[in-house]
Amino acid sequence: MSTSFTLHSGLSKHARAIACVLVFVLALTPVAGGVGNAYADVRKADIVMGETVDARGLAVAQCPNIDAERAIVVDTNGTVYFERNADDAACIASVTKIMTGVVALDAVASGLTSLDSTITVSADAAAVGESSAGLQEGDTMTLKTALYALLVPSGNDAAIAIAESVGAALRSSGTASGDSDVKAFVAQMNATAQKLGCTNTVYENPHGLDFDQYDGKLHSTAADLAKVVAYAMTNQTFRSVVGGGSTTITVKRGGSSADVFLETTDGFFDINDDAIGVKTGYTEKAGASFAGAVNKDGQELYAIVLGSTSESQRFFDADELVEWTFEHRKSYQLANCDQNTQMNGASVPLVAQVAHDDWIDRTVPATFSDPQCAVEVFDLNGNVSQTVEFNELHGSVKAGQVVGTVTFKQRNQVIATQDLVACKDVPAPNFFESIGIAFDRFMRGFSGEDKTATSQLLNTTPLIVDKTASTQ
What we know:
six-stranded antiparallel beta sheet, 11 helices, 28% helix
């Protein structure tokens, strides 16, 4: 049994959300003569922040529960929070069209074409079949309009039309070569994949069909696709096209204007309020796949799921990945002290007492250069530790002077450093004080007493509280 859905864009947001929940429940419910097709699970070999679930000793409740065979979730910095078979090659169906859009927009950025250039739908483009934007032979439109036809309803017709037009520009400029405009365009897709650091990706057409005359070696990985999506989302035109849902475009048809309604294939918008795209894919060989993006309070994540058990499940898998990631990203305050002191008339945390080496018993009160600094941590990655290096202090010390450095690590990776700065002026001993100190140190040499004060780090690193840790 295969469960898929399309929600009419005329429904209210509330109604669509309820419909999605009902579909999800039905997908998980056993049916007469068989079992439901969604088998979301947690695997010991799943990888969380570079280590397997098994190695970290994580409970099931602490891990994302998805059924996609291959998956990854990353942020804009390339931090990988979760992986499942992310480097395994697989067919990607119409997720291919992300790269189609990228190559077209790169050609615009290079001046080889423009968003206003004319795209003409050839007989080959109109006849490609399967997922279609409803374009007809002879239709003309701008490249920007064609990108909507490509990415919103996943139009194979638009993919060929764009590849023919942009491919011709790539060939004439010598940017790419091939026996045809489409082959030159595909060559540029592969070249761009290599430029982005994709290590196991091959494109053979601009639409992602993988059967009959299109059967071949077309494939990619979740890890590679995450790089492609991250790059694509740096382009504002791409973001606007994939982030708007269903729409209507206008094309020139038979000498007059014709409106063409484009219904989005992206059901992610219906279950995640922070969704901003990106692209669906489905063939029998690839299964249900999706590359999704969310932006929550300025924090952006990309979730790639390949081989979910149904076209609806892929959206729930992506939602599970991003919401799990947000749940475990925490703000961690670096200054954690029981005492405060004054610095330039303001109360600041007393982070350390740093020995002044010219005195026997005098220290310099210190705080962080940024006493309010906090860093984002991923709580499942372990607790935070700190190490300190104190400077040797001689002569007069002025408020604000750097007197040491504290380094913070999580899982042996540096996550932050803070300079220790003096909170007040501490003068050097005068001539007569220096004589007394020298004599005192001479006498301490016989008694074994300390000749200088001891530096102390007063800051602590509280344990990261994981609210799911006790849940089994």
